[in-house]
# Entry
Amino acid sequence: MIERTIQKHIEENLFRGKVMVIFGTRRVGKTTLVRQILNRYQTLGKRCAYFNCESFDVREKIETTNFQKIEAFLKPYDLIALDEAQYIETIGRSLKIMVDTHPEVQIIATGSSSFDIANKTGEPLVGRARHYTLYPFSLKEFSNEVITLSSNLEKFLRFGLYPTVISAIDPAEELRDIVGGYLYKDILAIEGMKSSKLLIDLLKLLALQLGSEVSYNELSNNLGIGISTVIKYIDLLERCFIVFTLPAFSRNLRNEVGRKSKKIYFYDLGVRNAIINAFAPLDMRADVGALWENFCIVELMKKAQNNRQFSNNYFWRTYDQQEVDFIEEYDGVLHAYEFKYSAKAKVKPPKLFLETYPSEFTVIIRDNWYEKLGK
# Structure
């Protein structure tokens, strides 16, 4: 069984009087992760218990702000996991009471893409929780062997790194099940959304524009809905950990595209490809460059997140088409990247950017990707 890198960081913060909140889509491995933590601490003599909050019996015990009921629920345990905690209507207030009255009991709460952060775990847990996001496997989690990673590289670009997809006999079918049976269902459950066709059409447009700047106005016209609705739906997709937005970096130059310019990428390429049913081998595709760019950006983000290295992320472009694919900003330092799938591609360092913004510049190609992404 693969141990997730984030497990170490979670365990380092256990039993310090804070709730551990783990977010992530279904099938990404949250249940497996919390069960591994519970099993480890049970062997150390802790009284541990796992509760699936989709169960009516579990919800009946926790869906309360009554101190006596919560005390009776917590008393037998040292460590509990509340899986799919979004099903508890009072989860924010209940967790606040739990951690305030029994800080010695460690609580781990997980939530899938329908976990309503603002309404259910927002204000009540300020200062009382640590938040983590579990993504599909990172390269380092998958393997430490460069030969193993290299032999699977095309599979990563076609089918992504969801745990159940990695082990599936038919990864395309598993992805269709994840997208159709879970992601759409969870997204539509939020705020009582009813228009599944509109959501699917938006995702298809975003999938087809991978690596390109996105125009909300163009999306609005294509979908026949208002720009405010487009913005709302994209925000929803971000909160569901399906896509993420990369804003433009702009500080000094007049001919830089403004900060309102955005690119949108997918957290998992398998999900992106399933949305448009595009699983063809790479040598038969026209979108390899966009797939490679998305892959490299996501793996850099996973690497930073797993190392608890928090950064601001951007792309950069001028109106005369000078550009940088990806920028990480942390500790006051800019790290600029260019991504080229072809090992023969020639890349000119972005002279204007480097003169204006002193920074490290790295080109990631198939000859060096393991050194930059897999370690």
User: Anything to note?
Assistant: The longest helix spans residues 171-189. The longest strand covers residues 323-330. The radius of gyration is 22 Å.
